[in-house]
Amino acid sequence: MAGIKRKVPVHRLRCFLSMVGFFSEPGLFPWCARKPPGWSQLFLSTACKGNFTHMIAKKCQKGQKSQKEPSHLGPLDGSWQERLADVVTPLWRMSYEEQLKPVISGYRNKSTFSVNRGPDGNPKTVGYYLGTRRDGNIVCVQSKHLKNIPEKHNQVAQYYEIFLRQSPLEPCLLFHEGGYWRELTVRTNSQGHTMAIITFHPQELSQEELCVQKETLKEFFIKGPGAACDLTSLYFQESTMTRCSHQQSPYQLLFGEPHIFEDLLGLKVRISPDAFFQINTAGAEMLYQTVGELSGVNSDTVLLDICCGTGVIGLSLAQHTSQVLGIELVEQAVEDARWTAAFNGITNCEFHTGRAETILPQLLKSKEDEKLIAVVNPARAGLHYKVVRTIRNCRAIRTLVFVSCKPHGETTRNVIELCCPPNSAKKLLGKPFVLRQAVPVDLFPHTPHCELVFLFTR
Questions:
Q1: Per the structure, how many domains does the chain have?
Q2: In terms of CB atoms within 10 Å, which end of the chain has fewer, N or C?
Q3: What is the pLDDT of residues 42-53, one digit of tens each?
Q4: 257 annotated as ligand-binding
Q5: Where does the Methyltransferase domain lie (predicted)?
Q6: Annotated binding-site residue? 278
Q7: Is 328 annotated as a binding residue?
Q8: What is the pLDDT of residues 185-204, one digit of tens each?
């Protein structure tokens, strides 16, 4: 259900939030049974469109009044049944196929393939892991059958495996055991352009020996069997760590175009090999439209786009706001955002490179008198505590939209810090936020994962 956004029935959303610990013990508020001062109206006022506690309170008040039978409103005919169906199952008039219009198979625009021993014991197998290192039972299995991986990604992985099995160099399965060839990342766009990024552990190879390997790889994908992949670009990264940024170890373009481009919400967006971009393009459009609707930006507001990646959220809303200020750690992504703004003629956006906990306090010093709306889209690790504290203590920020790909874990901690009563020991001095809505958007069909968009106000 890529990108499907539903007006979820209250009981289903409460169930979902309970699963991630928001309303159950030991969840977001394990002390809920004690009803601490300020919390009932502070946080639990709502978790979707509609006020849970207000509705419950009204029901209780009604129940405490007279137990009179309801007045007669007419015969129980089909119209009442349709009205009930419209409330409880608002999509009942649409076929399920119509509900699932966005792409639900092969939707990933980025896939990362590992190299390890396959079921047959061959260490030069390209695919995805089964098992764990802790249990010592890792097996690398080809991904041709996975519904979320596009054929093009599988094709590139297949030819990379052919290349590895022809190469005299061994793969790097464990750093301390040596080996060279490592993972493959494939990025594609809706026009079918394909970028491949191959990671390589240089070990003790000289620069001359490295050049030989890069040239061999290049020839394989230009003139050899790999030419069938029709790559738009091929990158090579020397990495001695599990993950390396472009700043730590530059991506080396072996051939082709340095970037791929995507059309999203009327914008032409540039994407570098290291830049974050939502892995489901059709779903991302729905996600960003949801963010725009919830944020309520207008010409009087300044939008803070925190952890902005390639800047698409801010850029897509720039025409509706007075200014957009984006913050992103990855330098390549910021360069992409600036290029996208210039190419699309957007002049009211600024993008800053660095850690949000360092950049945000500096930006806010000159914005205290502005009407600010903040959007945060952090990685799975959630927001740094200093970022939460800065947002919480900035009186000018009255609306916050929080996009989470992992609603439990660190996001739960972030929500507690945003919504708890003032706490001088933690330097959370600003007025607490209230969770008003939570809208799930399915970016990951065939998996249990879902993006969840929270709207906080104060």
A1: 2
A2: C
A3: 333 334 444 433
A4: no
A5: 299-366
A6: yes
A7: yes
A8: 999 999 999 999 999 999 99
